[in-house]
């Protein structure tokens, strides 16, 4: 019967594109990885990779086996994490990372309740872009993240939606776009766009690059300041833009296609290694539906 090591070698070879790259990721010599896959093929009584080319290519059988192997490995990791959490040792310190575009004041009541239930737990708060928070969760630098939903959430993170935040397009009152109505999206391409990007240069899945002239920042308050200085147009959460809109320094982009804004879902994420602990379950329950109308 096939083993977890065989399935790991199989899946990581697919992910990395070669036996040698899989060996490097697993910290093993290539011959061990190759033998694991050969043994898996023997156990399955079929060939999983076509080896005639420079790089291994999945056969039809390999394509069919891949999602099952991925699911089993994900469940195996979840089982390991659950076993580690059986002692349920509440950590003495919990770090919570929050995307700056999410209104912190709506979360303070939740924090007060958590402190009441766990008075001896030290809380640390960090702010970063949503993609940077996913990276920090991967490295377990933070234990809970509150982010704008991304299309690609790693399988080792548990998550649920806690509501949404309204976004819209904004520009400085002095910007040329403020004095005209854009009849279509091409009107936006003619002016610089201000866009959120993570510190490792990843762009959010809902922050679409429209203009060929783009400046980047890693949080919405920097985008707001760049917009107020007239450097371009940008997509901002309404609560970030409201004060500047009320003062007249910032305006919603005048558009013939009125509804360019949207509701961005907000998720709470926790690493599987910690999500089974009672304190994190309580935190999820307190955050649940927090930003829903």
TrEMBL record:
Pfam families: HTH_1, LysR_substrate. PROSITE patterns: HTH_LYSR. Keywords: DNA-binding, Transcription, Transcription regulation. SUPFAM superfamilies: Periplasmic binding protein-like II (SSF53850), Winged helix' DNA-binding domain (SSF46785). Signal peptide: none annotated. GO terms for molecular function: DNA-binding transcription factor activity; transcription cis-regulatory region binding. InterPro entries: LysR_HTH_N (IPR000847), LysR_subst-bd (IPR005119), WH-like_DNA-bd_sf (IPR036388), WH_DNA-bd_sf (IPR036390). Residues 2-59 form the HTH lysR-type domain. Belongs to the LysR transcriptional regulatory family. This is Transcriptional regulator, LysR family. It comes from Paraglaciecola polaris LMG 21857.
């Amino acid at each position: 019967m096939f083993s977890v090591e065989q399935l790991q070698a199989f899946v990581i070879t697919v992910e990395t594109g070669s036996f040698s790259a899989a060996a490097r990721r697993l910290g093993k010599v290539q011959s061990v990885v190759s033998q694991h896959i050969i043994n898996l093929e023997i156990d399955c009584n079929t060939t999983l990779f076509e080896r005639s080319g420079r790089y291994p290519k999945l056969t039809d059988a390999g394509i069919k086996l891949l999602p099952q192997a991925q699911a089993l490995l994900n469940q195996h990791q979840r089982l390991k994490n659950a076993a580690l959490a059986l002692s349920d040792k509440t950590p003495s310190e919990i770090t919570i990372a929050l995307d700056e575009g999410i209104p912190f004041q709506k979360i303070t009541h939740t924090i007060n309740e958590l402190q009441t239930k766990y008075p001896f737990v030290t809380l640390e708060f960090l702010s970063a872009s949503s993609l940077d928070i996913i990276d920090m969760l991967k490295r377990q630098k933070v234990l809970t993240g509150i982010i704008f939903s991304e299309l690609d959430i790693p399988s080792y993170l548990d998550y649920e939606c806690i509501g949404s935040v309204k976004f819209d397009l904004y520009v400085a009152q002095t910007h040329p776009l403020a004095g005209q109505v854009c009849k279509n999206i091409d009107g936006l391409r003619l002016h610089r766009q201000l866009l959120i990007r993570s510190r490792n240069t990843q762009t959010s899945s809902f922050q679409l690059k429209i203009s060929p002239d783009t400046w980047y920042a890693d949080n919405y308050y920097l985008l707001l300041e760049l917009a107020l200085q007239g450097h371009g147009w940008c997509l901002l959460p309404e609560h970030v833009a409201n004060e500047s809109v009320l003062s007249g320094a910032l305006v919603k982009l005048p558009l013939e296609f009125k509804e360019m804004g949207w509701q961005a879902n907000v998720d709470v994420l926790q690493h599987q290694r910690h999500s089974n602990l009672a304190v994190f379950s309580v935190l999820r329950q307190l955050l649940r539906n927090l930003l829903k109308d």
